[in-house]
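Technical note accompanying the year-one report. For the benefit of new consortium partners, we illustrate the data format agreed upon in the data management plan: each record pairs a sequence with a structure-token string. No post-processing was applied to the example shown here.
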Amino acid sequence: MSIKTPSPLRGIAVTLPLLLGLRDGSDPVEWSRIRTAQLHGGRRMALVMLAANGIAATATALLVDDTSPQWQIASWLGVLLLVVVGIAARRLRAPQLGDGQIALRDVRNTGWEGLLLALAWSTVPVLFCTHAPSGTTAGLGLTLCALMTGAAFAMAPLTLGTLVFLGYLGSAVTLQLAMAGTIAASVGVFVFTLLLMLVCVSRARTLMLLHASEMALDERDETVSLLLREFEETGADWLWETDAARRIVRASPRFAFAAGLDPASVDGMPLLQLLAGPTWETGDFATGLRTLADKMKKRESFRDLRLPVQIKGEDRWWEIAASPRFDDRGVFSGFRGVGSDITEQRKSVDKINRMARFDTLTGLPNRLMVNETLVRTIGEAGQWGGRYAFMMLDLDRFKAVNDTLGHPFGDRLLSRVSERLSQLMTDNELCGRLGGDEFAVIVRDASDQVALESLAQRIIDSLSLPYEMDAHTLYIGASIGLAVGPRDGRTAEMLIRSADLALYRAKDAGRGVYRSYEPALHVQAEERRVLEIALRTAVENGEMHLVYQPVVDAETGVLLGFEALLRWNSPEFGIVSPDKFIPLAEETRLIANIGAWVLRTACEEAARWPSVIRIAVNVSPDQLQNPGFVTTVTGALASSGLSAERLELEVTESVFMHEGLGVAKVLERVLDLGVRLSLDDFGTGYSSLGYLSRTRFSSIKIDRSFVQDAAKGMREAIAIIRAVVALAESLGMATTAEGVETEAEHRMVRQFGCTKVQGYYFGRPLPVEEARALANRGWQKSAAA
């Protein structure tokens, strides 16, 4: 069933600021509906308010007719009439219930209406009571008191406007009486005004609570109606029952319809025979059916048992549950259970799994599936002592195509490359796209070295042939790094690393060639060694610094925080890309010290920002393998004074490739501190829905590649973003869209339901001084709003 069951009626705390519309409630949508009810209550009483003011004005004019000039009375009546008619017209234009959402400012504006009305009436004591006889003054006082009492009761839904009216008018009368020397009357009017204001607040709170209860009941009734309607319309669930011999009895029409038979023919049929279908005669039963037979034989309850069935030649999937039945004497009499057709659900899950394992642009297996296949290949080869190989491909001169003809053209070229690669593959190979212009080939049986090298050369030759696209003749090529296991690696990580080193060697050799991994790769090792030496002292020498990229609310654009990004400006190598020195720091075990410095620096800076601004820090999988990482986080928070909930650690999916090294336990200990956890670049690597349910992530970050593809209208990317947002909402997580560079992309991800965004459209990574200024300026603007 797709409709959630209704939750029990929630209690609602109606504080005075909420009542007056000075701040919003915890559920903005719910409180918007309550505010609509407030304005609707004022709308219903608009004509009553108009009549009451008219009667009071007439009475006042009659009382002062003999004591005040006619022009003065007429002027006052004209001003009052203008104010009252204007307010009544505004109230009558207020929305009906269900007409839409009401903003806080709509409630706050009623305060101005109350003030204008109070100003009009507060002139009565000044204009007409100064020289009037005591009888006339008493009559005017009774008229004002009656008007105030009626407003306190009738206009209570518009609490802010009513309180402003009562408070101002009561204060004006109190002050006038005090100035006239009638202190007792002044005190009486003051107390009377306070009582009316209390009555107004109490009545308004009662009305609001009643409406909230009505809303909850209406929502519950609507949900139940939807559930019943969906159950009736879909017919996806049914009841079934068997006797002691496991034959179907009293088959329901729904069950018979799901089985593609009529109830008469279903009655008396063995349940296992119906479920087995054509396999009943052959005995080639599905595993689930064997499990069902075993449960029924042992007379055990079961649930969530999924079975493949064949209905009228169509393969379907059923999910059934049942419990044994016993008669009054305790004798077993059969099973009674429920079932549902989950074929469409399985198709959706399979589609999501496919999207998570296949590249949306080329249709080739993505990094996740390549890694899974490589792990499986290594395991199978280990059983029979075989050899396996891994090729890493990098396209030559592809960047020039992107820079000159644009990314859409480059994407089409990547699709053409994938087609040529697929044509070269046999059952012994699998080709996938790792990302960008990087591809990989897994060779399951690499016992023939000559055939392996021949395949590498054929790939290079094929990809080097010209591409004819839109009157352009393009020439690119490919460099290949080749690693053969188990010689070059007994694990997927080792083999990939060996192929990567061999790829660097191929590029250094002039590109357009393949090179095999060799233990002594002198050029690469020397460069790595020199860079490593510089990296070891980079932090101590002050060569590293942080920049901060803004993260904003997708709906309002309000600044929520920053992501801290590490930069290295080496005196020897210049500006070194993080893509180059971060992997080196991980390989050389320097990432722990560098990461600790980043964490301390980011926390110390964030402590200077307003308390509503958060800081996000990227964490390497290697850091999480160290149990001392929890102490590092604790120390950074303690020394900076930053509260734990303002710190968000971002991890990539690759951390879950190291689950056996205690990463999950470290994450749990960090979460117990109150620190937030965000999953970065979801869908680009080792995507798995399993770890999302096992780890308390607060948010999921959608990689910029999906945002860009979705902006181009690619259905696969749109489907992935929608699936991720729906998944995050169901798990109570926020979603952050990365790489938003245009207004159109911002509007798109906001429509998809993403809660936060970051990218060049909102700001590039900023130096610390600019980030600090933006944090304080952004907070002040938010506070002022």
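Partners are asked to follow this layout when depositing records. The chain has 31 helices and 20 strands.
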